[in-house]
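Data card: per-record layout.
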Amino acid sequence: MISLALQPDTADTLHPHIEKENERQVQIMAEILQQLGYQNPEDEAYFLASKLDGIALGYITMGDDYPYEQIKEKILQEYIHEH
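The structure for this 83-residue chain is written out next.
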């Protein structure tokens, strides 16, 4: 989705679909984060989505050199705890 979003011709055509999917994913994350006790679950969902986008971009650009397992553990530690 990132590479599609960065292509001007494609972005114009697919933007409504990409936006709809992004909103759906944020809503799902916000519901989970609300259950975990976050005060502002929608804001946190956008923040988490941004982190995941960055992880995806890092993995795409670095491939096997990307510290995927370490980053995965960091995300789990950050979000799997009591609030």
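Known properties of this structure: The radius of gyration is 15 Å. The chain has a mean pLDDT of 87.

See the next section for split statistics.
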